[in-house]
Design brief:
Blueprint lengths: L6 H16 L5 E12 L9 E18 L3 E6 L4 E6 L16 H15 L6 E8 L9 H17 L5 H16 L6 H8 L4 E6 L5 E5 L4 E7 L7 H19 L14 H7 L5 H25 L3 H17 L6 H12 L3 E7 L6 E7 L3 H16 L4 E5 L6 E4 L4
Parallel strand pairs: 3-5
Antiparallel strand pairs: 1-2, 1-12, 2-5, 2-6, 3-4, 6-7, 8-10, 8-11, 9-10
Helix pairs in contact: 2-3, 2-4, 3-4, 3-5, 4-5, 6-8, 8-9, 10-11
The protein binds alpha-D-galactopyranose (GLA).
Length: 402
């Protein structure tokens, strides 16, 4: 994945490549950011509350409309190209009859869902690149989905509000790609607000943007451990949560999801649950409570409490939800010992990928150096540790009009 100096430079390079490849200039440029989840992990499919932010790493797509009903897509980072018909998308095949490569399932799935909704999906030639490393838990695939939804909205001349667009993309991932994810990733990419973190209630679909602690910086540490078995383990966790709800209904027939059980009620019921179900529910129920506490801590400018909630979240993901990885545990423990770091935890689905850290601004350089060194020495792997800024959600712009 190439690091790009400035967004402007990247766009000029991309426009030149587009022209060379397609023999005509691109009409629009769409951008969709990745996300980091600061708190509220594995709760979005339990109607819980989450606290993510869109980050300044993104997918950039250049596109132009074509008259034929096909999508001709070029993934620059992968050096791959695919062409598929927009008729018969459910077959998941390219124009030669070969199965679509995994990356192409995201745009194809989005096109399919938009068509099912009756929205115009035009033929397209597109080229894209990304500064979100693939498979690291920063939602490179959700950004690709949201980015292509933007492309078709721009070329088709229709408009949907960002949350609805996010839901379309989630549906594409659930029904077309086959991952039963919640709405966290697509929501963050579509609804991000510059310089703010987001508080999103996945039950009511209400959300708001909150300013973060002015003295604190969010730092991501990529363990470079590729996530493995993520989707099978992920889907299994979801099923266990559903089983928990079934069992807990015996005590309270009203409940629809784990969101409906308070930590106090859970303390009363937990001894009646089988061990695996008890541990998974304990994580979800207390993690939701932690997000509410974090909102209060933020309002009181109490970064110590906020950070403690991040650590507690990690330990719960490690011990109760069992989605951590030894390299992530190491990163969190080491971060905890570095002065100026107030909170750290794994972020995203887990099983590898990244940790998210809250570090005092003036301590960030030292933090990055120390954590990189200790990780490199211990595992012989060079991690990628970097600051991120909260950025605005996906948007598109017309090209060649200035
Ligand atoms: C993945 C999913 C999200 C969410 C997180 C865990 O990123 O796509 O919907 O469930 O895992 O919080």
């Amino acid at each position: 994945m190439n690091e790009l100096n400035t967004i402007g430079e990247a766009k000029v390079n991309l426009e030149a490549k587009f022209l060379q490849k397609f023999q005509a200039p691109a009409e629009i440029c769409a951008r969709a950011p990745g996300r980091v989840n600061i708190l509220g992990e594995h709760v979005d499919y339990n109607q819980g509350v989450v606290m993510p932010m869109a980050i300044d790493r993104e997918v950039t797509i250049l596109a132009k409309k074509v008259d034929r009903p096909v999508a001709r897509l070029i993934a620059l980072d992968l050096n791959e190209e695919v062409e598929f018909s927009l008729q018969g998308l459910e077959q998941k095949k390219d124009v030669t009859g070969k199965g679509l490569p995994r990356w192409a399932l995201y745009p194809a799935g989005v096109a399919h869902v938009l068509q099912l909704k009756g929205l115009l999906v035009t033929g397209v030639e597109a080229m894209f690149q990304s500064t979100i490393s693939i498979g690291s838990g920063l939602s490179s695939s959700a950004a690709l989905e949201v980015g292509f939804a933007m492309v078709w909205s721009a070329l088709g001349g229709w408009n949907e509000d960002p949350l609805t667009l996010a839901q379309d993309c989630q549906r594409a991932e659930n029904e077309y790609v086959g991952v039963s994810c919640g709405l966290l990733d697509q929501f963050s990419s579509a609804c991000g607000v510059k310089d703010h973190i987001l508080f999103f209630d996945t039950r009511s679909l209400q959300w708001k943007a909150l300013p973060f602690f002015t003295d604190m910086q969010i730092v991501i540490a990529d363990s470079k451990v590729e996530r493995s078995l993520t989707s099978s383990q992920y889907n299994r966790r979801r099923v266990t949560c559903e089983q928990a709800v079934e069992l807990l209904r015996k005590f309270n027939p009203e409940i629809q999801s784990l969101r409906d059980i308070s930590p106090v009620e859970f303390a009363a019921y937990s001894e009646y649950l089988p061990e695996e179900i008890r541990k998974r529910s304990e994580h979800v129920i207390k993690e939701i409570a932690r997000v509410f506490s974090a909102v209060t801590a933020l309002q009181r400018n109490d970064y110590r409490s906020f950070g403690a909630l991040m650590y507690a979240s990690h330990y719960s993901l490690r011990d109760y939800y069992e989605v951590s990885h030894p390299n992530l545990d190491f990163l969190v423990e080491q971060a905890h010992a570095i002065p100026g770091c107030y909170g750290a935890r794994l972020t995203g689905a887990g099983f590898g990928g990244c940790t998210v850290n809250m570090v005092e601004k003036e301590a960030v350089d030292q933090f990055i150096e120390k954590l990189s060194n200790v990780y490199r020495v211990h595992f012989g792997i060079e991690p990628a540790i970097f600051r991120v800024k909260a950025s605005q959600g996906a948007y598109w712009e017309k090209l060649g009009t200035d």
